[in-house]
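User: Can you help me understand a structure? I only have the sequence.
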Amino acid sequence: MNTKTLNIKLADNYFRFLKNLDTESKKRLIIRLTESIEIREEPGKLDILFGAWKDSRNADEIIEDIRKSRVNIREIEDLQ
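Assistant: Let's start by predicting it. Here is the structure, written out as tokens:
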């Protein structure tokens, strides 16, 4: 059974329970569910969660700085 089918069955089970609620409770539930959908479906908003990289340099300058800062020390230790 795939996830979509499982989610549909789960929603159906919740509905059987929730259909007996009073009208005011159903309205509040609808509002909360609608708000949760609106919050989740904002593409490109990950930078708010994790912080965006802010730099005055362009990509080529950043790459050049990274390459210049690399250190390659190859010292072979004597195993004796």
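Now, to help you interpret it: Residues 3-69 form one domain. The CA atoms of residues 5 and 11 lie 10 Å apart. Let me know which part you'd like to focus on.
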